[in-house]
Design goal:
Porin, 2 helices, 18-stranded antiparallel beta barrel, mainly beta, OM_porin_bac, globular
Length: 431
Amino acid sequence: MYVMKWSVIAMAVAAGTSQMALASSQSESEGFVEGSSLTILNRNLYMNRDFRDDGSSRDAPYNDNQSYREAWGHGFIGTFESGFTQGTIGVGVDAIGLLGVKLDSGSDRAWPDIFPTDSEGRPQDDYSHAGAAIKFRVSNTVVKYGTQFVALPVFSTDDARLLPETARGALITSGEINGLELNAGRFTALSGKSESDHDSVGLEELNLVGGTYAFGENLSTSLYYSDVKDNFEKYYGNVNYNMALGAVQSLAFDFNVYQTEYESERTGTGSDEDNTIWSLAATYGVGAHKFTAAYQKSHGGYFSAGGTPVGYDYGIDGGGTVWLGNSIQYSDFYYKDEQSWQVRYDLDMAAYGVSGLSFMTRYVNGSNIDMQVGPDAEESEWDIEAKYVFQEGPAKDLSLRVRQAFYQATNGLDNDLSDTRLIVEYPLSIL
């Protein structure tokens, strides 16, 4: 199966090359130094989460009876990308350097998901992580091996905390055919967003293949497959369609679906299980306003050793591998047999003369969650967000963002909580 998957990609790339549908990116290479860039993203993050009780929470494996978590830190996310050498085969090097510095936290409110802790449970003052990758380009196909960020629906490194996750492995990205992007990869390590170890998540081997095809400006489709050793096989599909309705109106539809086949090593039940989860979102835009309605349904799953209902499962394949309409600030609404609906409103203040300022609010309600014992559970979340990006002057591109979530659940599923995040980001272009 492994050979066949790579053969399919090889044939598709070869077919694209024979069609010569696109001008070769490699033929336009500027050179190793001339095409290089170095950026440092400064991220200042403050987060607190109030569980309003004894702290027995979804933050497993950190269930340590903390009723409150709080952390404040500054992260430096450095990325260097070289250009490609000129010639038929271009060669380049990319590098990533990450440093997180604690500004405030404590053992009584430690958050291991943001700062690593010592043997006594105290947050470390700082932590760092670095890696590099070599890359080759032939025509419009790039092969990259080493440490990298990945953003694919079946393997996506998470960037929702102070520092992002990083993955180590090989990824092929091919754009030989106009409108078609193909991907194939093999990864053997994943570093957690609050860890310095290159393999802190425990990923042994992940193979993936898939692609996205744009039929035009309005319609695109995606299909991906991944196999995570001793965990699960996962299939993903997407259809996205958008259209203009006059000068200031638009309508968009986004459909996502995952089919996951769990192995007994993952479920811990001694048997294989499966889950299908899908979401459909429709967005109507008029001027500065956008109105979204979404529905999401999970079918099947399993129960963990602790009795928690598991529908769609991810994390070993990247903390961002949940490309679903109702995956929001705190909850993903992905439990066993859960159904959920969302209403959302977005406002862009540029239409009112305040460029860079935007607001968002949404509400999601989930129900019919199979709890194995007792009645079904329900959960709900209400989010409010505001963001401002400076448009000019010395502070150009500096962004200020406030995110607030209020979460509630029933029947022992989880605790009621509030989640507050203040994020300041400032990118610096060195090269």
